[in-house]
Design goal:
Layout lengths: L2 H23 L2 E8 L11 E8 L7 E9 L7 E7 L10 E9 L2 E5 L4 E3 L7 E5 L1 E2 L21 E7 L14 E5 L4 E5 L4 E9 L2 E9 L6 H16 L2 E5 L2 E6 L2 E7 L5
Parallel strand pairs: 1-8
Antiparallel strand pairs: 1-4, 2-3, 2-5, 5-6, 5-7, 6-9, 10-11, 10-17, 11-12, 12-13, 13-14, 15-16, 16-17
Length: 263
C-alpha cells in the first residue's frame, strides 16, 4: 500500500471514530422515580409526565426535554428515564425536573417543588414526590349544594341506559354504596350481592375488581344484573344533581341512581 493510501486509511478511521464518539455522547439522561405518599391506587390509564426545564431565567421555565409514560396499571414508585441532548445544556444555567400524573386529561398529582439536576453540582438521578392536585373551585365541581355525598350514600338504581329496573315480589332492589374507608363498593345487583373497589380522583371515578355471589335468578333479573355490572366497569366519571347520581363514560350516561331516604 502506498504512503498516500495509508494516510487516507488512517484519516478515514479517525473520521469514523470521531463520528462514533459524537453518537455516543449525543444523548444523556436524567433518571429516577416518581411517587406520592397518599394511600390510593392509580387508575390503569394514568399517564406520568416528566419534564426537564431551564429554570435559570426570570421568565417562565423553558422545557428542554419531556417524556410521557403510560402507567398501564403500574403503581408508584414509577421509574423514569428522561433523555436530553447535552448540546442543549448551558453549564452556566440551572436546570430542574418536574412531574405530574394525569388521567383522562385531569391533573391528579403534580410536583410542587423543582428538583435541581445536571449543572452546578446537581445530580442526574432524583426521587420525585408529587402531591394531589388542587381540587376544583366550588363553581367547577359536580356536586350541587345540598346534594348527598358520593361516598357513604346508599344509591338505588333508577335506570340503566334509560331502562328502569325489573320489579317483582322476589326481586331485590339494585343498589350500591361506596365506602370511603378502604375505597370498597358493596351493594346488590337485584339477585346477587356485589362487591369490588374503586378509585376516586377529583371527578374521575373508576370501579375495579367488580364481583358478585353466584345465586341464580330469573333471566330478566340476571340480564339486568349483568348490565349494571357492565355499567360499573365502564364508568369513568360521575355527576350528582339534586338526589340523582349519574354514572358516566365520558359524557354518556350509563346508569342513574337515587339517594332517597337513607337507612
Amino acid at each position: 500500500m502506498s504512503r498516500t493510501m495509508s494516510m487516507l486509511a488512517v484519516a478515514f478511521v479517525l473520521v469514523i471514530s470521531g463520528e462514533r464518539g459524537q453518537a455516543q455522547t449525543k444523548e444523556a439522561a436524567v433518571t429516577g422515580t416518581v411517587a406520592y405518599l397518599q394511600r390510593s391506587a392509580l387508575p390503569p390509564d394514568a399517564i406520568l409526565t416528566v419534564q426537564l426545564q431551564d429554570v435559570s431565567q426570570d421568565a417562565p421555565a423553558e422545557i428542554v426535554a419531556e417524556v410521557k409514560i403510560p402507567t398501564a396499571g403500574k403503581q408508584v414508585p414509577i421509574p423514569f428515564r428522561l433523555a436530553y441532548d447535552p448540546g442543549n445544556i448551558n453549564p452556566a444555567h440551572s436546570y430542574a425536573v418536574r412531574a405530574n400524573i394525569t388521567e383522562s386529561g385531569s391533573m391528579m398529582f403534580t410536583s410542587n417543588t423543582s428538583y435541581p439536576v445536571i449543572t452546578r453540582g446537581a445530580p442526574t438521578e432524583v426521587s420525585i414526590i408529587v402531591q394531589p392536585a388542587s381540587p376544583p373551585a366550588p363553581s367547577e365541581g359536580r356536586l350541587d349544594k345540598g346534594s348527598p355525598k358520593l361516598e357513604g350514600t346508599r344509591w338505588k338504581l333508577i335506570d340503566i341506559a334509560g331502562t328502569p329496573p325489573v320489579t317483582g315480589a322476589a326481586v331485590e332492589e339494585v343498589n350500591v354504596t361506596l365506602n370511603g374507608e378502604g375505597k370498597r363498593l358493596t351493594g346488590s345487583g337485584g339477585c346477587n350481592r356485589l362487591m369490588g373497589d374503586y378509585t376516586l380522583h377529583r371527578n374521575s371515578l373508576r370501579f375495579r375488581h367488580i364481583g358478585s355471589t353466584m345465586m341464580a335468578c330469573p333471566d330478566p333479573v340476571m340480564k339486568q344484573e349483568q348490565a349494571f355490572m357492565a355499567a360499573l366497569k365502564d364508568t369513568t366519571t360521575y355527576r350528582i344533581t339534586g338526589q340523582t347520581l349519574e354514572l358516566l363514560k365520558e359524557q354518556q350516561v350509563l346508569a342513574r341512581l337515587d339517594a332517597g331516604p337513607q337507612p
